[in-house]
Each structure stands twice: as C-alpha cells, then as structure tokens.
Write a structure and sequence with these properties.
Keywords: Signal. The protein is an alpha+beta fold. It is built from 4 helices and 11 strands. Strands 1-11-10-9-8-7-6-5-4-3-2 form an 11-stranded antiparallel sheet, with helices on one face. Strand 4 and strand 5 form a beta hairpin. The N and C termini lie far apart (about 40 Å).
Length: about 260
Amino acid sequence: MKRMSNPLLRSKAALYFLCVAAGISVFAPACKKDDKDSAEPAVSQAEVATAVSSAVTNGGVVAQTEQAAQTASLYIAARKAAKATTDDCGFSDNGEIKFASETNATPYFSIDYTYNYVLKCDANQSFQSFNFTFAGKTSMVTTKMAIADTSAATFSVTGLSDASNSLVFNQAFDNKANLVSKDAAVQSFYSVLKYTATDVTVDKSTLQIVSGTAAVKISGTNAAGKSFSYEGTITYKGNRKAVFTISGGSSFDLTW
C-alpha cells in the first residue's frame, strides 16, 4: 500500500503553525507578594517571567504543541478516509519550518525549527501515540528587549482514538536564551529553562490547550555574572491563557 505523504506538507498546517507562532505573548502580574529580603535578586521574578513567557508562548511550547496536534489530527483523518491504517504503524517523517517577519518590523519575530515524528501502535495495531521531537531557534526583537534562543523538545501524544475528545501530551522542553535589554529599566541576562508537563490536554476540535500543568525550572546569570535560580508551575486555563506561579513567590498571567 502506498503510504500517505506528510500531512504537514500537504496541507495548510505549516501556515497554521506560523500564525500561532507569530503571535506575541504578553504577561502581567496576577498577584504579587511583598519581597521582605533586603538583598536584591540577581534577576527579579518579573524578569524571569519574561523569559518563561518567551520560551513557552513565542514559538515555543504552545506553538509546538498545537502544531503537533494539527499534524497528528490530519494524519489520522487521512488514514481513516483511506480506510486503511494498520500498515502505518511505525511510520515516520521529518521536515523544517521557517518564518520571519519583515526585517524592519516591530516587534520582529523569526523561527527555524526541524521536527520529526513516529507513529506507534498497540498490540492490536491501533494507533497508540505520536512521538514528536522539535529542535531549533527563535528570535524576537521589541522596543525593550531582544531575545534569541535555542530549544529542544520531545512530545508523546496519546488520546488518538475516537473515544477521546482530547489529545494528551507528555512533554519535555529545554530552552536556552539570551535576553538583551534595550531599556535602562530592564537588565540583560542569560537563562536555561527546563519544562516538564504531564497530561496536558488539547481539544481535538479547536487544537488548543485546554488544561494541564507543567513544572518549570529556570536558572542563569545576569550581565554582572551573578547567578539566579527559580522553580515554578504553569497552569493552563484554556482560551489561550495560563498562569506561571513561582514557588514561594508571585504569579504571572501568560497569553498568546
């Protein structure tokens, strides 16, 4: 049997991804606690939230998640239409996604990702999971900051049967970023972020994240070489919203 070509390349999935990725996220304090420590931290909680927001929403975790959901949904629909699925067990594919704003655009955004996936089946030869990997880099320039990062991610996508209304993601995402300030009120720093999510759900009809949580660890150094380290949790609320809560600290709204 002739196998289906990559649905990402046959459809408008790539355009869908770029539209999601090009959206610039914003964050705002959801609730703030008084900092009673006399010493100023190397990087503030608000500054850390900027790094988390960029890594998660600006072409990062959210865009990759929704792209993976789109690709999985298209592939399954195509195979069902062909009324043949069992020989697709073990099918794999790969490709590249690139996008860039106009050179002088403000904000400026670019993305360059490579990806691959493999379809796994259970003992009954039913679709069990899509296993995705992403790797690449993004950059964003606003009036206040220039951010350049690299990232690598792995996703296991389950919930593929008709009985499930949602796709379920278990994810690991690593991000390294240079955040260079263009505003005297904001400092430059380097960050390393580790994101681990368990059972994040994506609605099959809208292909948007509707619920789930992820643990976040972020560390790095500021321009003076002073180190920082934070841990926190991201809670997805649906409707393109989430909350990043720093352990023992403040919470920040994330939108995309």
